[in-house]
Amino acid sequence: MRYFMTIMPPKEVDSGERPVPQALMDAMGPYIEKVVASGALISTGGLKNSGTGVRLTGNGDRISVMDGPFAESKEIVGGYAVFECPSKAEAIQAATDFVNLHIEHGMPDIVVEVREIAGGYNV
Amino acid sequence: MRYFMTVTPSREYLEGKAPPQSLMDAMGPYMEKAVADGSLISTAGLKPLAEGTYLSSRGGRITMKDGPFAESKELIGGYAIMEFATKADAIKAATDFVNLHIEHGVPDIDVSVRPVDGGFNV
Question: Residue A77 class from Cβ within 10 Å (0-12 exposed, 13-18 middle, 19+ buried)?
Fold first, then answer.
């Protein structure tokens, strides 16, 4: 089964007030190599800060367009990953490993949401 | 440049209400077009919130919560990764996608467009 994960670091990381620890950046390469080799990782990306983003809102038949950053948001997505795992328990284990990687490398405050994919398309 | 888009419909759809048949019928040809022009890299709709899990670490302590995340504000119903020459092209594609929903019975919908800063795709 395929799972979609969003990663939400502290807002100060998105705003640039708090840098991503070098130890975490160093640990990310070997971690990604491992999950690619195991066949679990399908796609992942880190996003540029939300100040470079745009939000479109359809209300009735009107679309409003707002530039980032999105100050009123409680949580800001910093990255995403698509994983293939045999069960939800294994997807949650993969997410837990990812959170632990952050905790062990200087970013102890982080949120990961795990959602099962209902169908889709990949190049 | 590569862009990451999230789609947030109204709460009832996030909780599992089926989209209008007319929207589902329109989505196939829309996706075929975006695949044919090379802009669509990856996309998916997500299962209802109740099937999701939320892991939160505060100071290194992990708590786990199952959906449907009543208190969360930014909830996602689907995502797309698309490749465009400029941000204006990405916003144009997102506008087309919102219009597709408006025209097919889902007039209240949010799409966020964020540039990707490196990553990996199989």
Answer: buried
Mean pLDDT by 10 residues, chain A (123 residues): 94 91 93 93 93 92 90 86 95 95 94 92 74
Report the residue of B74, B83, B99, B104 to disrupt the A interface, i.e. the one with the largest count of A CBs within 10 Å: B74
CB contact under 8 A, B108 and A59: yes
What chain B holds in terms of domains, given with CATH numbers, is 2-115 (3.30.70.1060)
pLDDT of residue B73: 61
Q: Which residues of B touch A3 (CB under 8 A)?
A: none
- From B78's Cα to the closest Cα of chain A, the distance in A is 8
Q: How many beta-carbon contacts under 8 Å exist across A and B?
A: 190
**Closest-CA distance of chain B to residue A16, Å:** 15
Cβ contact A77–B113 (<8 Å): no
User: Which domains are delineated in chain A?
Assistant: 2-116 (3.30.70.1060)
Q: What is the pLDDT of residues B37-95, one digit of tens each?
A: 999 999 999 999 999 999 899 988 999 999 888 776 668 999 999 999 999 999 999 99
Given a cut of 80, whether residue B122 has pLDDT beyond it is no
Residue A21 token pair: 């620890």
